[in-house]
Amino acid sequence: MASYLATVAIGEYRVTTGMWHGLPMVLAVAAAASTLDDVALENQTRPVYAMGMLNPSSSGSTKLLAHELAHQWYGDDVSVADWRDARLNEGFATYAEWLWTEHQGGASAKDEFDTAYRGLLPDPPAAPRDTSAVFGRSAYLRGAATLGALRIAVGDDTFWRIMRGWPVAERFGNATTADFIAYADKVSGRSLDGFLHRWLYEAGTPPYPEPVPRP
């Protein structure tokens, strides 16, 4: 278990229990609002959401759920070896938001990438030089955009083999960005080092991605 994802909460809660497809389900909701109304965290096996962040009428609420649940694989099943690799957690989870929006009939993940590319980049590189900005916008947005660029570069079939295989290959372990690049190289049969390096480590807007041919 990733130790930073262990959380203890003490207080008065409204508790509801039940079953879902044969599995026990426990919901605990704080009896009163707390000072943590802006917090969501991907605690392992049970994400925590502040009451103020979940509005049933808001599409942003379901995107938040998709983000935190995606962390069960990207961030929990595979944890970072160094906080400067936080994009391996947050970039994947943000890309999951884009996928969920598409699933719900909204903008496609490709459209979300194009919007980010046109208006929200250039951001600083997704790999910060020190730990002072590990959870800055780049870890989330440019991290997700890197995955969008990778999808264009290798095509859908290979992209999904990388996405599904990565949390299996590194399961219950700690991984680095270099590990992910090496895994993408192996699965795709391409040398993606230079391509991904521009997205992850260089400032400014990288060239719009194009398919990377096999050697």
Summary of the model, kept short:
The protein has 215 residues and is α+β, with helices and mostly antiparallel strands.
Overall description:
The chain is of the alpha+beta class and 215 residues long. It has a domain at 57-201: Neutral Protease, domain 2 (Orthogonal Bundle). It is 44% helix and 12% strand. It has seven helices and six strands; from the N terminus they run E-E-E-E-H-E-H-H-H-H-E-H-H. It has helices at 59-70, 87-103, 109-120, 137-154, 156-169, 177-188, 193-201; strands at residues 13-20, 23-30, 40-41, 48-49, 78-80, 173-175. It has a two-stranded antiparallel ribbon. Strands 3-4 form a two-stranded antiparallel ribbon. The protein is globular.
Strand and helix layout:
Elements: E1 13-20, E2 23-30, E3 40-41, E4 48-49, H1 59-70, E5 78-80, H2 87-103, H3 109-120, H4 137-154, H5 156-169, E6 173-175, H6 177-188, H7 193-201
Parallel strand pairs: 5-6
Antiparallel strand pairs: 1-2, 3-4
